[in-house]
Amino acid sequence: MQNEFRTVVNIKRFDLSIDVGSEVLLLGSCFSDHIGARFVDSRLKAVVNPFGVVYNPWSIARLLERTMNLELCEEDELILHNEHWHHFDFHGVFSGADKTDVSKKINQTLENTHEILGRTDYLVLTFGTSYVYERVDTSGIVANCHKMPTGFFSRYRLEPDEIVALYKELIVSLRMFNPGLKILFTVSPVRHWKDGAHGNQLSKSVLFLGINKLVELFDGVEYFPAFEIVMDELRDYRFYDPGMFNPSEQAVDYIWRRLVDSLFSNDAQKFISLASKIAKARKHRIVDPAASESLTFIRKSIELIENIKLQFPQADLDSDHLYFKNLLFKVEK
User: Fold this and answer.
1) Which long-range contacts (CB under 8 A, 24 or more apart) does 36-41 make?
2) Which of 33, 172, 203, 304 is 20 to 30 A from 161 (CA-CA)?
3) Segments making up each domain of the chain, as ranges
4) Distance (Å, rounded) from C-alpha 232 to C-alpha 166?
5) Cβ(227)–Cβ(204) under 8 Å?
6) CA 98, 103, 109: angle at the middle one, nearest 5?
7) pLDDT digits (tens, 9 = 90+) for 28-39
8) For the domain 23-264, what is the CATH code?
């Protein structure tokens, strides 16, 4: 018998199944950005962190509540710091020097995400840490500290029961808002080393316990073991970036493949394989579009896209089709 020199995380085939036309909304830590980028590159209908990166379960829940209830931002919610206006529920990408512009930007995102959340098929939530920052003056938990002085906040770790109680109500509300919604939880494999090795493990353990209870309580709610794949299957620092705390591109690609194998329909897997060729073609640097080899490449890319559209009419490849059509038009006009 051949020796195995690693342990493989066994992942069941989920009852949920993402198809070519499925819409997916991803929210959470920076790991959501990494996995979400694979959805986008695969030409799937995915919206990734519209509110920016959010690490803790409490703030993610707060954003979902604001989105469902369409709680628009009032200008008096903003706070001025370092000549910029900020909102503690929202990432710094929304901050700016003009108070009205900040509020408008937040509200436009809330309105857009409200519409998306109402029709999306899958909500993927990635928790990064169970530690939260609470304002000393209001006791409100913030999603982003916006580099305010440390004395402005107190920091503590949520308990599993707090997460369960919060998300029990939230999931019921989400199901009333979007009855067909399926939810996939995952825990970010990024290590929060400022808490130390033990503190990081405690933080992640709280997330595991809370999520596990929610999966037991609700149908259509699942957990994908991204953290376990990195910690137990890819147990080597070559699967981390140079900082040694974040999974490398190679590791994220592997996690993506495991996710596709366990959660995507056969048609979706076939589509992703074909769509990867489109993504690769879009990244190809065309120096001279009029060159014969460039023209051949452009025409073959258009043909590929049109063939895929015939096989999968529910897919949205319009922007790719238009991109290569415009290249061809510029040469032929």
Assistant:
1) 38/252, 38/253, 38/256, 41/275, 41/276, 41/279
2) 33
3) 23-264, 280-333
4) 30
5) yes
6) 125
7) 998 899 999 999
8) 3.40.50.1110
220 conformational bin, left if phi > 0, alpha if psi -120 to 50, beta if neither: left
Give me the pLDDT at residue 163, please.
Answer: 98
Residues 6+ apart with CB under 8 A from 313: none
Q: What average pLDDT does range 9-14 have in this prediction?
A: 84
Q: Is the pLDDT of residue 233 over 90?
A: no
User: Of 24-33, 34-43, 229-238, 279-288, which range is least confident?
Assistant: 229-238
Minimal CA–CA distance to 202: which of 164, 159, 244, 155? Answer: 159
Question: Both ends of the chain: CA-CA distance in Å?
Answer: 65
In this structure, what DSSP letter does residue 238 have? Answer: G
Give me 109's structure tokens: 């995102």
Residue 231: pLDDT band by 50, 70, 90 thresholds? confident
Count Cβ atoms within 10 A of the Cβ of residue 268 and give its class: 0-12 exposed, 13-18 middle, 19 or more buried.
buried
Q: What is the DSSP letter of 18?
A: B
pLDDT-based confidence at 1, cuts 50/70/90?
very low
Enter the DSSP assignment of 9: -
Q: Which helix (H) or strand (E) holds 222?
A: strand 221-223
Q: Strand pairing of 141-142 and 23-28?
A: unpaired
For a pLDDT cut of 90, what percent of the chain falls above it? 75
> What are the pLDDT digits (tens) for 173-204?
999 999 999 999 999 988 777 888 898 899 99
Closest CA relative to residue 129, chosen from 181, 186, 71, 187: 187
Tally Cβ neighbours within 10 Å of residue 91. 18
